[in-house]
Each structure stands twice: as C-alpha cells, then as structure tokens.
C-alpha cells in the first residue's frame, strides 16, 4: 500500500512515531533502535513501511531502511514470531547483525533479547537459513556504499521490476553492475547491456 512515508516528525513516544506528510499524520510503530535513530520532533524523516492487517486491526510499521523491513518480513514468517516480537528483536539487534547471525547459524546474538527464548531462537535460525541468503548477499553487500548509493540501488531495482524483471534477478543485476560513482543513467545502461536489451 505504502512503500515509504517521508514527512516531519510531529509526535514521538514509546516506539510510536507520527509523520506529518502534507497535513496528514501517519502513525507508525517502530523498533526501539529505529526510534532512537530517526531524529527529533520537528525534523524530517523517511520510514519504509509494512502494513500489517488482521481482522480487527490495521497497523502501519516503520523501518529505517529496506534491509530492516525485509528482515522484519522474514521474521514474521517464522512460526510463533508476530510483529511485536519481530520489532522487539530488531530493537535489540540490527538487521545487518541478525542477517549475519542467521547466515553463520549463531543464535547467541539473540540471547540477550528479552522475550526471545531458546526454542524461538532455534526456530528463527532453522526457518530463516535459506530465506535470509538473498537478504544477506544482496543487502549486506551494499553496506560499503553510502546512503546515496543505497537509494540508487533501490530505485534501479524498481525500474527493472517495472520492465518485468523479477525482484531477485533485478537485485543481482544491479549488485553486479553498481559502482560508487554511478548515476542512474550509467547504471541502467550497464544493467540493460548485461540483460542484452
């Protein structure tokens, strides 16, 4: 429904953030880590979003970046892990570190997170081992680039998807071609050449 929301922070309390976007206040629940990083009331912020829908509830959840959102979505696919627990986990460990923990099958990273017991830790490690490979390989490979390059990466992937390329394929193509000094035109030219278009 919403990819991201950008606006002025109008309210911020107990992991709830309200962003004022052109006079409309969007209330988002965020992890404690995201809450501490996004800035103060009156400052501009951009949060990637996930709309969680149940029979009696619609909740907008906010994330610092696409990697955090992707890891959240993987977490809630684990049996016994709901949005509240997933946000608790992401409040205690960064999406990057969690991805590395799962990739290396090291559940000790989750030991000190309140409310996450041994069985849940083991289930997360087991169920997400395969699912996290794409997140770890594509998203973590971008950590050497700055925020501008991350945005370029995300936008280029979206454009390829608009051309009918599957998301994982688009991510891999852009990952293989992106360089720190690329602009969108240069990057897409290389990507289309790589695809033979």
* Strand arrangement across the biggest beta sheet: 3-2-1-4-5
Largest sheet: 5 strands, antiparallel
| Percent of residues in beta strands | 15-25%
Helical content band: 40-55%
CA-based shape: globular
| Low-pLDDT residue intervals, each spanning 5 or more residues | none
SS-based class: alpha+beta
Mean pLDDT figure: 85
Tally of helical segments? 9
Distance between the termini: 31 Å
Radius of gyration: 18 Å
| Strand and helix order | EEEHEEHHHHHHHH
Q: Nutshell version of this structure?
A:
By secondary structure, this protein is an alpha+beta fold.
Q: How would you portray this structure in words?
A:
By secondary structure, the protein is α+β, with helices and mostly antiparallel strands. Helices cover 47% and strands 20% of the residues. It has helices at 32-37, 66-75, 83-92, 95-103, 118-128, 132-139, 147-162, 167-177, 184-195; strands at residues 4-13, 16-21, 24-29, 44-54, 57-63. Strands 3-2-1-4-5 form a 5-stranded antiparallel sheet, covered by helices on one side. The longest helix is centred in the C-terminal third of the chain and has 16 residues, at 147-162.
